[in-house]
Every structure is written in structure tokens, then in C-alpha cells.
Amino acid sequence: MLTSVASGEQKDWKSVGVMNSVLDTEHPDLVVLNGDMVSCEFVAPDKYNGLLDKVVSPLVSRNLPFAATFGNHDYSETCSTRDMAAHMWDVKGNNGKKLSFTTQSVDGPVEEVGVSNYYIPVYSSSDGGKLAMLLWFFDSKGGSVFQPGKHLDTPLGDTVHDKV
């Protein structure tokens, strides 16, 4: 699990180097990006998906599947987490295969339920039909409501909604 990568236009990219080192050492089958992938407080609305691409580039180059949740720094008035989630859904590896498990399984406004609440079934390696476990991903939100150009910085609640 990698957490608080928090890249932004004003940040350095040492965290991507650390990701590369960890991935080269550990050789995981699935990577979990656990929030704060982009420091959206400092990112223009037309830049966040490009920064997200830089964050997942170590995974793309290794064809590593991943799942993500969004953190409070991913939510801001200049970044749409709904748009970032849709962008992540389409990420493909160098082999052309889809890599992201990131999705939304709970209906409702982003301000209430977030955009990354879902689960991934994991099946037995010896008996592919036998469910071994469920990995649950919850979006606790936080940060600010997406309102580009309004400069309102409206706070977003930071709890898991009852619908989840």
C-alpha cells in the first residue's frame, strides 16, 4: 500500500522514485494507492489528470494492477475527484490491459458519498472459484468542494456516509 504520495505542480517527484524502489524490491500483485495522490490545493483544473498519470506511471510501466481511494488533499475546489476516478478507470499498462480497479459502487452526490467506495473480491490461488477475501475501499472525503473559479473553498465533510 502506498499512501499520501501527494504530488502537485509545486512538489518534487521524489515520491515517484520511492515508489519505483519499493515496487522493484517487493514485486506486488496489486498496489493500493490510499489517498492524497495529488495536492490539489496547488493545481490548476486542467493539470490534475496529468499529475495523476505521473503518480501511476511506475504502475503502468510494470503493468501492475492497482486500486485507489481519494484523500482530503485530492478534494479541492480545483480538482474533480469524479473526473480523476473516471480518468483512472481507463489507465492501461504497456501491454494494453486495463490496470485500475478504482470505481464507485455507491450512488449519491460526491459531497455526500465520495467517489471511491467499492470492494474487490480476491479468489484462492489454488481454487480460482473459491472466494478467499474481500478488499473494501472507503472514501472518507475531506478537503473542499469542487467549484473551479469560485474561490469559495467550501469545506467537504470528512466522514464515511451512511449510504456506504
Number of strands: 4
Give the helix/strand class: alpha+beta
Reading side by side through the largest sheet, how are the strands ordered?
A: 1-2
What composes the largest sheet? 2 strands, parallel
How many helices in DSSP terms? 4
Indicate the multimeric state.
single chain
How much helicity do the residues have?
A: 10-25%
The SSE order reads: HEHEHHEE
What features would you highlight for this structure?
164 residues, alpha+beta, two-stranded parallel ribbon, two-stranded antiparallel sheet, 4 helices
Structure description:
It is a single chain. The chain has helices spanning 14-26, 48-61, 81-89, 110-113, and strands at 31-34, 66-69, 118-123, 131-137. The chain has 164 residues and is an alpha+beta fold. It has one domain (14-137). The strands form two sheets. A two-stranded parallel ribbon has the order 1-2. It has a two-stranded antiparallel sheet with strand order 3-4. Helix 2 (48-61) links the parallel strand 1 (31-34) and strand 2 (66-69). Helix 1 runs parallel beside helix 2 (48-61) and helix 2 (48-61) packs parallel to helix 3 (81-89). The model has no long low-confidence stretch (mean pLDDT 78).
